[in-house]
Amino acid sequence: MSESRVSAVRCPDYDTARVKESVQALLAPLGGMQSFVSAGQTVLIKPNLIHGTPPERGATTHPEVLRAVIGEVRDAGGIPVVGESPGYESLTTAVWKSGLLPVIEELGVPIVAFDAWTEVQLEPGHLVPSLPIAKPVADADVVISLPKIKSHGLVVYTGCVKNMFGVICGTQKAQYHLRFQDRETFSRLLAEIYAAARPALSILDGIVGMDGNGPRNGDPAPLGIMLAGADGVAVDAVACRIVGIDPLQSPPIRIAAQMGLGTASLHEIDLAGPPIEALKTNGFRVPRTVRPSVRQRLMSGRTGRVLRNLFTTRPTVNPGGCRGCTICARACPSQAIKMRNGKARVDYNKCVRCYCCQEVCEHGAIQLATPPLARLLRR
Question: CATH fold of 292-377, please?
Fold first, then answer.
């Protein structure tokens, strides 16, 4: 099996039997689950659980996809474990809100919170000498990633590579946002985390994805597809082409390919299943942010703060939608959000444009707004 083989199937909805059949059909060109899992191995299944969000919203891995993958792992003789580190709420709350808990309990699968980690040492030349990878991930024999196809305010698209950011425990993710404020540098960090987490298989849930104000408060996007492969970079590249995105415009994919972690070139990908042209969808919307190369220049130097406020996309709070829950303020790594008269207010001189606030807002009250001068840069 080619490491850059990507399997694709159509799946119109989350009917239990249909998803099971689709996952089996998806894995067949890859050699089946037995190509990735051997009898007795512990298999850490890492869903995309950004926050506790109902499955119909398209923000989190659907329960039926998790059910089907657990079944395949068990049929191969593996011992499945589900693990995740959702943002700013307990894992128990997140799996309940997202509909994953009934499946996990019904199937009797252990669920582990990523609250302890192992320092994984990196070779010289990386951004950091080591990464605090969640201990269940580091200790697992096999890691399987279950991301979603979604738009993303910071990195354009989120899928296989970005999903592994969740193996960093708790508030350490916020610290990385604060430390690596530039989008290009942060994307390199994402690629390094993906490499350290070593997922053996990525199964991308695109039956219903999310576009617009993703990755949490966008709109459900019925795409009717699932993708899988050992090369998560290649899976992401195919997904991007299907929804009309140049994969090289998503910095984590481009940088991961440059680092040799996979390929983003369709000429180097062996696609099993319908051709991309037959799977393409129209109208998939991504957040409109300033080009990465421009953003990088604006975020540096003495004048960076002033230029950043004039040119870069920034989070804006809709006072009518804000409930004063303070979750955005608690999520902000630079402490740029304060509550005034029960509403969130952003100090743009402190804001690092990581968009964590927009990502975690439960009420969709935070949108990304592009200043007029930034819009001119896209022309």
Answer: Alpha-Beta Plaits (3.30.70)
